[in-house]
Amino acid sequence: MNVLVIGNGGREHAILQALKKSKRVEKLYCMKGNAGTAEIAENVDVDFMNIDAVLRFAKGNPQIDYYVVTPDDPLAIGLVDALEGIGKRCFGPNKAAAQIEASKAFAKQLMEKYGIPTAQSATFDNYGDALEYVRKVGAPIVLKADGLALGKGVLLCDSLKQAEEGLKEIMLDKAFGAAGNKIVIEEYMRGLKYTPGEEVSVLAFTDGKTIVPMITSCDHKRASDGDKGLNTGGMGTFSPCPFWTEELQGEVYEKIMLPTMNAMNAEGRTFKGCLYFGLMRTDKGMKVVEYNSRFGDPETQVVLPMLKTDLLDIFEAVTDGRLADIDIQWESGACVCVVLASGGYPLHYVKGKEITIGDIGDCTLIHAGTAIKDGKLVTNGGRVLDVVAKGADIEQARNKAYAAVKNIHWEGMQYRSDIGIKYRDR
Ligand code: AMP
Ligand code: GLY
């Protein structure tokens, strides 16, 4: 089969690397891709947010049998619906199902209606009412722009002053554009044992009838060591989550995963694809922090390398509604991903810096923001490269990853040196 993956980042390169292992894959394509995807796939220079352009390309390239739509934005505007409308087979939820990520207000209402554990919240589309509510409840409090905001529309406010400023930023100054027309105001959840709280990402395959969790992983959203600095798209991940147990798995499956799949069916929004559960362990059990309608980035970079089953077999089973027939197997051991970013990220950074890569041992290099310019590999984004290492345990994988990082350079390169450390004492 010829398979096209839509997206440009590390996540898409990781998906392509997993698909490349499939015996049934003949040729891979990536729209638009980066310098890494170009090594294993043909990059296609079409704007995937332009549905007409994608449909024109699909009609002109009948040799492509299957489309994997990965990023949140094209899912939210209905790219899967459009491709299916011209008879193409796809992996990814339709527009109605992608609402679970595209609108935080929708996700909160769903959880409330179906009794799925999450932080208490209230939703407002009027600044005055929101301000009154914030003043009544007080700090600490969490403010979330309703719509998609590149993962940046969440403000954790420790003081009332911060909350009042944040509310103005989101609703009046429109710091996140139209995403801030509505706001979700949430209880600030605390972790059971750790500050600021223990979080785990659980990605799951679902065809709307069956839901199968993948191995767990932990993200690092802040820019600097010790979870300091600004929020980013993710500076590293490791798998599995150290505090995960069979008991938690059971609780999450029964109280969160199955009820979510059933709730989406009941709402006439059957979700088919990868459903991402961002969870927090609290003193009142596991709670949902957020849903994503897609693979996580950089979670995918540590989850898919551990997959033993053919990814294309799983994707097609999801599309055809026969996921229950597939036995999904994982390697034991651990995987660590260290993200290498441009100096200044997540604020202003410069592109076009030449990258040199020395010995990386048996680590895998995943490209996020890279390009080839005048025959040289250069930086082309905020997050540039992901170094991925496997090991018997997280410590071994972490040591391998950081040994490789020492041999990669460009001017201004920055990374966190503490990926793989948190939650490790229990
Ligand atoms: P989100 O984009 O919704 O995942 O939020 C980004 C990050 O903010 C999460 O990974 C959490 O660390 C934190 N967060 C979001 N909502 C809450 C909450 N209600 N209580 C505590 N932390 C939160
Ligand atoms: N790593 C978090 C996300 O993909 O949204």
Description:
This protein is α+β, with helices and mostly antiparallel strands and 426 residues long. The chain has 4 domains: 2-94, Rossmann fold (3-Layer(aba) Sandwich); 120-187, 2-Layer Sandwich (Dna Ligase, domain 1); 192-325, D-amino Acid Aminotransferase, Chain A, domain 1, CATH 3.30.470; 334-409, Glycinamide Ribonucleotide Synthetase, Chain A, domain 4, CATH 3.90.600. 30% of the residues lie in helices and 27% in strands. The chain has helices at 10-20, 37-40, 51-60, 72-76, 79-85, 95-102, 104-113, 127-137, 160-172, 246-266, 300-303, 311-320, 394-405, and strands spanning 2-7, 27-32, 42-43, 66-69, 89-91, 121-124, 141-145, 154-157, 183-187, 198-206, 211-213, 218-219, 222-224, 228-231, 236-239, 273-282, 285-292, 334-341, 356-357, 364-367, 370-373, 376-379, 383-391, 408-409. The strands form 7 sheets. Strands 3-2-1-4-5 form a 5-stranded parallel beta sheet, sandwiched between helices. A hairpin with a 2-residue loop joins strand 16 and strand 17 (285-292). Helix 8 (127-137) runs antiparallel to helix 9. The longest helix has 21 residues, at 246-266. The chain is globular. It starts with a strand and ends in a 17-residue tail after the last strand. The model has no long low-confidence stretch (mean pLDDT 96). Residues 151, 219, 234, 292, 296-297, 299 line the site of glycine.
